[in-house]
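Summary of Year 1 activities. Much of the first year was spent building the evaluation harness for sequence design. The harness presents a backbone, in tokenized form, and records the residue chosen at every position. We chose the following record to illustrate the format because it has been used consistently in internal testing since the harness was completed.
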């Protein structure tokens, strides 16, 4: 008899899942807390099509209903509570994958992209039952995986850099993360917001690598922030530009600005660049000048985003401008939600 064919029972020692944790990581901690072999719970949840070695700890797993029920029984907590923490429980199979069997508990494992990262080292030690805490892996881009551990005031890293930093003297990073959480809380589609954070972050990273001449104040802050965090030679570490990436995310998710960028005449785009410079706290007088060529240069990461966004709505914009010329009466733009 296979392990997954035996009746499931709640384990004597139960542990809490960590937000964003992968199923193999949680199953391993549950097994090791109960003195079982590290893959025992993973094998006991359901049938695996392709072996159950330790390599699975780098993977995540999709469970059918029966397998998810078994995990909940072993863990001693309702499935809903597990689902709130473990992202894979609310994700379906990849489109190319054959459906899992319905007549028995079954598991499909896959390599998430990007790869999972480590959870807060201090939390792992605190939560560990054994003196050697097992590695806790969390999904990097999932909104459930926090960027910061508030309990230990530590930066947990993102996909580009998973170094953990002490934030005891970096209040602005903590404040920025709270603003990002507020932004997520205000939207139903958190995946859309977290994707735009990555876009915004890539833009700020590009600025840190090739500083735009009209952002001298921001670039100066980045240098100072990098020194304060103890990484003076690397002002382009993602943590350094995070607060500005959040500010930019607030603007890129703003439907009024998305509508403006999609529909405005070329000469009117300067208002958008100007708003960004001001929101980032840029005090340089020239930054307030309104043409994009003067402010940002033509080949800037932000102008690429603007060009792509305008390209998406090109036909709509041209049609609208043509009608506008014919009618003389100002015609309203399509509803804002259209520009997501
Ligand atoms: Zn922690």
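For this record, the design step produced the sequence shown next.
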């Amino acid at each position: 008899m296979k392990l997954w064919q035996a009746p499931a029972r709640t384990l004597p020692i139960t542990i809490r899942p960590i937000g964003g944790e992968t199923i193999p990581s949680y199953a391993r901690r549950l097994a090791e807390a109960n003195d079982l072999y590290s893959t025992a719970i993973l094998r006991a949840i359901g049938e695996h099509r392709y072996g159950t070695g330790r390599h699975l700890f780098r993977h995540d797993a999709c469970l059918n209903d029966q397998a998810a029920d078994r995990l909940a029984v072993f863990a001693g907590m309702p499935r809903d509570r597990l689902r709130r923490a473990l992202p894979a429980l609310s994700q379906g199979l990849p489109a190319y994958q054959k459906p899992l069997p319905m007549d028995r508990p079954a598991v499909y494992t896959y390599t998430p992209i990007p790869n999972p990262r480590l959870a807060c080292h201090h939390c792992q030690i605190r939560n560990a039952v054994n003196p050697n805490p097992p590695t806790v892996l969390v999904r990097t881009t999932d909104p459930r995986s926090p960027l910061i551990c508030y309990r230990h005031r530590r930066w947990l890293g993102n996909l580009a850099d998973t170094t953990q930093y002490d934030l005891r003297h970096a209040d602005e990073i903590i404040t920025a993360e709270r603003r990002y959480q507020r932004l997520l809380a205000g939207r139903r589609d958190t995946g859309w917001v977290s994707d735009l954070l990555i876009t915004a972050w890539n833009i700020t990273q590009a600025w840190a690598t090739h500083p735009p001449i009209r952002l001298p104040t921001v670039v100066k802050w980045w240098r100072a922030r990098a020194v304060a965090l103890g990484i003076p030679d690397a002002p382009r570490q993602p943590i350094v530009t995070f607060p500005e990436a959040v500010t930019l995310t607030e603007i890129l998710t703003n439907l009024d600005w998305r509508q403006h960028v999609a529909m405005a005449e070329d000469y009117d785009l300067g208002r958008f660049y100007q708003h960004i410079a001001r929101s980032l706290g840029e005090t340089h007088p020239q930054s307030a000048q309104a043409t994009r060529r003067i402010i940002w240069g033509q080949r800037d990461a932000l102008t690429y985003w603007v060009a792509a966004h305008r390209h998406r709505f090109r036909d709509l914009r041209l049609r609208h401008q043509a009608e506008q010329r014919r009618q003389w009466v100002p015609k309203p733009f399509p509803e804002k939600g259209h520009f997501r």
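The beta strands are 47-48, 60-63, 106-110, 117-118, 137-138, 148-149, 154-155, 165-166. Quantitative recovery figures across the full test set are reported in Table 2.
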